Amino acid sequence: MKIAVFDSGIGGMTVLHQIIKLLPDEDYIYYADTAHLPYGEKPKEVIKEYVFQAADFLMTHDLKALVIACNTATSAAIEDLRKRCSFPVLGIEPAVKPAVLESEKEKKKVLVLATRLTLREDKFHRLVERVDKHDIVDGLPLPGLVTSAEAFHFQEDQIVPYLKEQLEPFDLNQYGTVVLGCTHFPFFKDSIKKLFPSNTEIIDGSVGTAKNLKRILEERHQVGGGTGAISFFQSGREVDNRETLDRYHKLLRRLDQLQ
Fold first, then answer.
1. Residue 120 and residue 87 share a domain
2. Which one, 38, 138, 169, 178, has least CB within 10 Å?
3. Which amino acids does the record list as binding substrate (predicted)?
4. How far apart are CA 174 and CA 196, in angstroms?
5. Which position among 19, 37, 68, 70 bears the catalytic label?
6. Residue 180 maps to which CATH number?
7. 118 carries a ligand binding annotation
8. Of 192, 201, 213, nearest to 16 (Cα)?
9. What percentage of the chain exceeds 90 in pLDDT?
10. Catalytic residue flag (residue 182)
């Protein structure tokens, strides 16, 4: 049996990376819905239909779990998707709660960087209302980072000017924690760090999702049994192009270097 990790593009690789670190003896499917990316600017019902199509395909592959490694897709579809699947379905959400707890100690604010859809979804607002009792959470959509990641443009001389422009209205000294609320954004962690004070924490939700998956599989006595193999799919087609496969594996190595 396999663990499937789904995203609209390459962002979910940041979640897959964390899962492999905790669960190395599994077999994986990574599914990128590249035919329909980016998700962050599309209507909720459209995204939900894309997620259902991908899930229907993945259900034919003997899964022990499905991880929706996309904040936008989680917001749009996770509750309905769980009703369709007989195996555990995990989502991801911005790590607002730990960010608020940490920043409150320092009397600082929290800045959530995400897609527009994630920031305007009821799921996100309910999360903020539940944990943000002192109105310290701000949000900023950064769709340009998704576009850059999907084009494999990670160079700081391209990314930093964009970040500076988008962050210009904010007093960065006010923020104790920055939450990377899109799974594409950890690829740019070093660039983001350069713009904030050195003591600002930069966090995301992928570690929590990986730990939750491990706990669930342990409870179901389903840990292990694999070889660490990863199959890559793009919108229902298995990737067999050597150049594309090399790109995916280079992304995993890049994430090793960013830890």
1. no
2. 169
3. 7-8, 39-40, 71-72, 183-184
4. 10
5. 70
6. 3.40.50.1860
7. no
8. 213
9. 85
10. yes
Whether residue 85 lies in the annotated active site: no
Q: Are residues 211 and 86 in the same domain?
A: yes
Q: Among residues 32, 182, 203, 255, which one is catalytic?
A: 182
71 annotated ligand-binding residue: yes
Structure tokens at 40: 């962050």
Does 67 lie in the same domain as 120?
Answer: no
pLDDT at 91: 94
Whether 183 has a binding-site annotation, put simply, is yes
User: Is the same domain home to 188 and 240?
Assistant: no
Count up the domains in the chain and report the number. Answer: 2
Model pLDDT for residues 107-144, shown as the tens digit of each residue: 999 999 998 888 988 889 999 999 999 999 999 999 99
Q: Which domain holds residue 139?
A: 96-204
8 in a known ligand binding site: yes
Q: How far apart are CA 5 and CA 69, in angstroms?
A: 6
Measured distance CA(3)–CA(122) in Å, rounded: 28
Tell me the pTM.
0.89
Tell me the pairing of strands 201-204 and 175-180: parallel
Give pLDDT tens digits for 53-89.
Answer: 999 999 999 999 999 999 889 988 999 999 999 999 9
5 with 22: CB under 8 angstroms? Answer: no
Judgement on whether residues 104 and 76 belong to the same structural domain of the protein: no
Same domain for 70 and 81:
yes
